[in-house]
C-alpha cells in the first residue's frame, strides 16, 4: 500500500481506466451471466452493507432470503423447500453433495455424475474426498441411464442429473435417475444452475424438478438467467434434514447454527434476486426467456444459411455450432472482437449462449464474420 493518500478523483480515475480494459457484454456470446436488471442493481446497492452471516442483525434481508427461497421452490414444484441464497452454482453443488455425504452412512464414497457435468463436481471430489464417477452420454448428449446403473454401487452417496448442461443446454432424464435413486435410497441432486430460470418458462414436458419424487436437491442460479447481480446462487432441498446436516454451531453469533458454506455473506444479491422476481413475475420471465429463444432460432437460421449446423437441436438458449477447425475459428473470431466459448473434446464445437444482452444486430454481425472466417 502506498504511503501517500490519493484523492477520490485520483482513485476513480485509476478505477475507470481499469474498468475500461474490461470487455463489454454486447459482444459476449460466451457467458451465462448477463447485465443485471436495473432493479437488481438498485436493490443490490440498497443492501450493500448487509451480512446474512449474522442474520439477527439484519432481520429484513434475512426475511428476503427466505422469501426468495420459497419463490424459487414454488417455481420448481415445492413451496415448502428449504435452502439459502449461495454465491453461485459451485457453492450450491458443493453443499448439496456435502449434505448427501453427511446423511449417508457410507465412508469414502462416490458420486455418479454425467460426463457433461460442470467442473465444479471435480472440485467437490477433491474437497470432500469423494470419487467422482462419470457416466456416458447418449447420442442426444443426455446421460445414459444404463451407464449410470453400471457405475452405481453400495458406496454411492449421490447421483447427479443436469437440467441445462453447461455446454449444450441439454436436460438429462431426471425421472429415470430418480427411479434409480429411489430404488437405492440415495440422494439425487439436479444441477439447474442455468436451466432453473429457463425451463419453468418454456413450453415442454420435461420432468426434472421437485415434482419428480426422488429429486432431493436443486441448484438454481439467479445470477445467470435470473438477471440478478453476481454473486447470487440458489440451493434448495426438499427435506429440512438435508439442510440441517450442513449446520455447525456458531456460539457467538445472533443465530446458534449456520448451514451456509461461507460465514460472512452479502445480502445484496439476495435482495437483487427478490427485486427482479417481484418486478418481472412469471409473465416477465416468460417474455424474457421467449426473447432468448427467438434469438436462438434467429442464430440457428442464420448459421444454416452459411452452412453451419448445431451439434444438437437446442433445447434452451445454448447453441453448439459444428465448424471444421473450432480452435482456430474461435481465435480468429476473438481477434475480431467476438467472445465465443468452446465445448470439450470429443465434441469440440463453438459454444454460444443467447443471453438477454445479445441483439439481432450483433447476431448478424457475428454471422457475417463467422462466414468470412470459415470461407478463408
Ligand atoms: N452448474 C452449471 C450447469 C453451470 O453451467 C455452471 C457455470 C455452474 C454449475 C457453476 O456456477 P458458478 O460459476 O456460478 O459457480 N456455468 C458457466 C460456465 O462455467 C459459468 C460462466 C459464467 C462461465 C460466465 C463464464 C462466464 O463468463 O461456463
Mean pLDDT: 97
Number of helical stretches of at least 4 residues: 11
Total domain units? 2
What is the highest CATH level, the class of the largest domain? Alpha Beta
CATH architecture of the largest domain: 3-Layer(aba) Sandwich
Bound small molecules, by name, code or SMILES, are: ligand 0PR
Number of strands: 13
Question: How do the strands line up in the largest sheet?
Answer: 1-7-6-5-4-2-3
Task: Summarize the structure in words.
With 376 residues, the chain is an alpha/beta fold. It has two domains: 11-36 and 281-375, Aspartate Aminotransferase, domain 1; 38-278, Aspartate Aminotransferase, domain 2. It has eleven helices and 13 strands. It has a seven-stranded mixed β-sheet with strand order 1-7-6-5-4-2-3, with helices on both faces. Strands 10-11-13-12 form a four-stranded antiparallel β-sheet. A two-stranded antiparallel ribbon has the order 8-9. Strand 8 and strand 9 form a beta hairpin. Helix 2 (38-46) runs antiparallel to helix 9 (268-305), helix 4 crosses helix 5 and helix 9 (268-305) packs across helix 11 (360-375). The longest helix is centred in the C-terminal third of the chain and has 38 residues, at 268-305. It is globular, with a radius of gyration of 22 Å. It starts with 7 loop residues before the first helix and ends with a helix. The chain binds ligand 0PR. Ligand 0PR binds next to helix 4.
Amino acid at each position: 500500500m502506498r504511503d501517500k493518500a490519493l484523492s477520490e478523483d485520483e482513485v476513480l480515475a485509476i478505477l475507470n481506466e481499469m474498468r475500461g480494459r474490461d470487455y463489454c457484454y454486447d459482444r459476449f456470446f460466451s457467458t451465462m451471466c448477463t447485465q443485471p436488471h436495473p432493479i437488481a442493481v438498485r436493490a443490490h446497492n440498497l443492501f450493500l452493507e448487509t451480512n446474512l452471516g449474522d442474520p439477527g442483525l439484519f432481520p429484513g434481508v434475512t426475511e428476503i432470503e427466505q422469501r426468495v427461497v420459497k419463490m424459487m421452490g414454488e417455481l420448481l414444484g415445492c413451496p415448502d423447500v428449504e435452502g439459502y441464497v449461495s454465491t453461485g452454482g459451485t457453492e450450491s453443488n458443493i453443499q448439496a453433495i456435502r449434505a448427501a455425504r453427511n446423511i449417508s452412512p457410507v465412508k469414502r464414497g462416490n458420486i455418479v455424475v454425467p460426463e457433461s457435468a460442470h467442473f465444479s463436481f471435480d472440485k467437490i471430489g477433491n474437497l470432500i474426498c469423494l470419487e467422482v464417477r462419470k457416466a456416458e452420454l447418449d447420442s442426444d448428449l443426455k446421460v445414459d441411464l444404463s451407464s449410470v446403473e453400471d457405475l452405481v454401487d453400495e458406496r454411492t452417496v449421490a447421483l447427479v442429473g443436469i437440467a441445462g448442461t453447461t455446454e449444450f443446454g441439454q436436460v438429462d432424464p431426471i425421472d429415470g435417475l430418480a427411479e434409480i435413486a429411489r430404488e437405492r435410497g440415495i440422494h439425487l441432486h439436479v444441477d439447474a444452475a442455468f436451466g432453473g430460470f429457463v425451463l419453468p418458462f418454456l413450453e415442454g414436458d420435461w420432468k426434472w424438478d421437485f415434482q419428480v419424487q426422488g429429486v432431493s436437491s436443486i441448484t438454481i442460479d439467479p445470477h445467470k438467467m435470473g438477471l440478478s447481480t453476481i454473486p447470487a446462487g440458489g440451493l434448495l432441498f426438499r427435506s429440512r434434514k438435508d439442510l440441517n446436516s450442513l449446520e455447525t454451531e456458531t456460539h457467538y453469533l445472533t443465530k446458534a447454527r449456520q448451514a451456509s458454506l461461507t460465514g460472512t455473506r452479502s445480502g445484496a444479491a439476495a435482495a437483487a434476486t427478490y427485486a427482479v422476481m417481484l418486478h418481472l413475475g412469471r409473465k416477465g420471465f416468460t417474455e424474457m426467456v421467449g426473447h432468448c429463444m427467438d434469438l436462438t432460432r434467429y442464430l440457428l437460421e442464420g448459421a444454416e444459411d452459411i452452412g453451419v449446423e448445431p451439434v444438437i437441436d437446442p433445447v434452451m438458449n445454448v447453441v453448439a455450432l459444428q465448424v471444421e477447425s473450432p480452435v482456430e475459428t474461435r481465435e480468429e473470431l476473438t481477434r475480431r472482437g467476438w467472445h465465443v466459448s468452446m465445448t470439450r473434446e470429443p465434441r469440440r464445437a463453438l459454444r454460444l449462449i443467447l443471453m438477454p444482452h445479445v441483439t439481432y444486430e450483433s447476431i448478424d454481425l457475428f454471422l457475417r464474420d463467422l462466414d468470412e472466417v470459415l470461407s478463408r
